[in-house]
Amino acid sequence: MIAAMRSALFVPGDSPPKLAKAMGAGADALILDLEDSVAAERKEAARETTLAFLRDARKREGCPALMVRVNALDTGLIDADLDGIVAGRPDAIVLPKAEGGAAITHLDAKLTAREAIHGLPDGEIGIHAIATETARALFVAGTYGGASPRLLGLSWGAEDLSADLGAETNRDGDGRFTEPFRLARNLCLAAAAAAKIQAIDTVFVDFRDPAGLKREAEEARRDGFTGKLAIHPGQVQTINEVFTPSADAIAKARAVIAAFDQNPGAGVVGIEGVMYDRPHLERARRLLARAEAAGIG
Questions:
Q1: What confidence category does residue 273 fall into, taking pLDDT thresholds of 50, 70 and 90?
Q2: Is residue 198 within 8 Å of 192, Cβ to Cβ?
Q3: Most buried residue, 74, 187, 205, 207, by most Cβ within 10 Å?
Q4: What are 250-266's pLDDT values in tens digits?
Q5: What mean pLDDT comes out for the span 31-46?
Q6: What is the CATH code for 7-243?
């Protein structure tokens, strides 16, 4: 299973040069894409290329987590995708256009069958869902909890949702998401928290605007997201920096934990004139876990 992710970089599954380049981008995870970045006539070739890449990458030291975005459940392509790549033992499947816990249960069953066929341990392959790409998905965002122990995280998407809603754009003149898409963002965040899994922010599509990327990533971290999707290798460093806990944040978290350790029965502790309660303790523990996953702390 995948440890906490700060960054997950999309890479077309039919491009060996881009796949090779992505290995050195520094992302915590790569998302090998069989969906939107692959034309219909290239799907089978993409499965073959992705399987070969998975098998080769597993031999390399320091390999990032390897996830595969398959085609959606209603496309008629997902079974061929899974048949083509499960033998490569991806760490997780990224499910686009997911519509609630029922979709996760459906994918879980498909993975269980294929793990058995290939002699893999039951539950080895995780699931990461993109939870807001259709209007219907917004109404079932609260149903992911308990759907499958494979479910590791939720992301949200604005591009497919724009088409489904018939929106002219999903961002305003300042580059910020408009209200329908902020609703989708917030539902994803709440859904992940309710299911006790990671919330990963969506892509920032203008890879030539590093300042905009940093601002959006910082706002996502502020609100509770623990990582962000990337569409270009040049975005990875900024995302990793934003979502790596700072030395000051780590020190503060340790102080909160130490104060509660010294007062195990307390509901509230004081540190330098500031009161901290049990929710602050849980937040501190989560931050230190993220720091440990990032190799610091």
A1: confident
A2: yes
A3: 187
A4: 999 999 999 999 988 88
A5: 96
A6: 3.20.20.60
